[in-house]
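hey so i finaly got around to running the thing on Peptidase M60 domain-containing protein from Paragonimus westermani. pasting the sequence first so u can double check i didnt mess up the copy paste, my clipboard has been acting weird all day
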Amino acid sequence: MEIKTTLEMMTSALLLTLELILRLKLTYASPEQSNVALKKPVIANAKWPECLVDGNYKSTISPLADKMPFIAVDLGDVYQLNSIHVHAQNQWSFYEHGLGLYFSVYVWPNFTTACDMNQLYPWNLVKSGLMFTRKGEQIVLSGSITAQYIIIMPDTIDFEKPTGGLVMGELRAFGKKIQDGYVPKLPEEIEDATKFGGAADTKTLASRLELASRSWNYFRKNDVIGKYTADEVETVGVQQAVRKVIDTYGKYFEYHCICDRHPLKKDPETTRAFLNYNTILFMQRGAKIIRAPGATRNPGDVSPNLKPSAYNVTFNIDVAGAFFPMAGYAKPGEAFRYQVLHMSTPNLRGFRIRINPQTDDIANHDQHNRWPVVTTVEDMRMNGQMVSPFGGPIVVQTPSKANITIRFENVYRYGWFDIRNRESVQNWNIERQRYRGTPYMMIVGDQMISMVQTDLGVDTNTENLEWSTTFFDNIVKIIHNYRGSDYTTSRLQVFVTDQQLTVGWGHSGYPWMGHNSWGDAFNTVDTLKKGECTGYPHEIGHNLQVWKATLMNGEEVTNNMYIPVVHHHLLGLPAFEEPYRPGSTPNDLKDMVNTWKNGSYHGVGVNYYNYLARLFNESLVGNVLPLAMNTKEPLDSEDLKVNFWVRSLCNESKYDLVPFHRLWSFNMDEKTLQLCGGFLCFFPDDEFTKQIPELVEKVLEDYGKNCFRGTPRKVNLNRNLMRGISKVGKQYIFIHE
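ok and heres what it spat out for the 3d tokens, dont ask me to read them lol
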């Protein structure tokens, strides 16, 4: 009886196990029914987008903040789906992200360009009000669903402010293909079309473009553009050929549009074709032109709620520059007109107009999150019309001091904030709501002009925007003051944010660049006040680097040595002391001592400059920098730089600092020894030198001179470090409605 009962129990358990296995097979799909979303293209502004469809339930997609933070999968073909499976993230490092957030699943049955998918919203809703309540949870949506795209987006978004998307693990879909997806066909190759000579004339721009429109092989393998003049582009023949190329290949490039949601991975078979098409788009002329595929996403389109404006701009500048903002935005594909009404110069030679200051060329990148070139620039005329396939803020370049008035028509205003114009500051809270429809805007500071995404400006109130703008201006001023240059006669700094840069997340230059996220600094005053936003002084420091005073391996040192000066004097932080960065963290100070122990010369770090500041005051280095900048000595070798530097320090401090610099193994010549030897020798006796007693003894013994080891005299800066801080100059840009 007991044996029978045991057998019955075992049989029941076996049947239950089989039932569970069958359920699992039904849930996770039988071999006959494959996951049609597996490893398909993902359309998303996200980190690790491929994780959504990689078949790994432990990997995670993490969408970035966006006005429409959706993630989508392109199935490639049209399917009749019987189920869609969405999985919560199950990765320990993401904690509870993605849980407790209401979201919806949508589909779209027809082809659309990946960068323009948001323009089709609302998509076909499958189910709303969904929520993951635990890590690894699966939600299955069953039914007959026709789809080429499966789209997921949180329910709580307002379409005006960027919000976070749904962090999740995996998306799967099951069903059968019912229709081939749209794939544009390239024109058939004409026989002998690429032969040079005979029927293939490539001597002129028009002939090369004509040949390119007939031969994909020629178009994708050759620099079709070559050399040409601006007047040549305007000719009827070139314009007809440009139109023909776009008509021939437009659908192909729409299919392969480029934006952050749909990056282009470089393929050697087609790289040249994309570069050619990029340039050809800029050659279009007319009131309306074809926009670059993806331009509505990056840089972005103007809101349909924003109407075009006409107004005059007068600017009266004392120092030449290339990026003076005109308070207007050019809509992609739509021309604006301008007329010079007044100018103080005899002609317009050297004056130029640019649409979009995003000047970084990213052609050499392996992946493009935007088109390689997005800037239009032309010589200014007395009467002109400009159009861009990408659009962007309009800026003017002037070669010299000038007073000029320009009328603009059919441009789109962005909120105007000019720190030198008190009325614009006082009206900002009204202005930022009135003109919020452009992708980017420009902020006019006293010493720095900035281009950031308009959303950042719109979300920043007057008090914060005035504080952050003034702070960035003060960074420029105090670095100039510290190095001994005159900010009032120097070119303004220009900062531009972009979707993708030539290198890294930020770099120096004119303009100096930062990723779009760097614009957040204007709206993070608390972070700025803590000295945690070092990217700005780092890159501005590069632009104002004193190369004659930059020693071996100092490319990332003599720019960063300004940061403690900025933080100490502008923010009141004890930035030269431990544990502040750069230069005074425990690791920085440990590295300095290890450098001494190493016994060989490799230049110095920021810790060296901070050490000098603690001993003598930061004014010692500040007094030497202009000496290095202005000396007629060539300083074109390390030995010349080192010896000039040490001699100058000795002379400014009135101490013999030769043995001090032997800690860093400086190679000092007889001239330096003689000049410095005329002063009282100083050598520190502190927590750092006490870590190397034997080395200290050897250095002092070898030098053979008694050295003072007490507290040295502090050095005073021989000019006003705070000159112009938090003060503004006269207004130089005037907007006349």
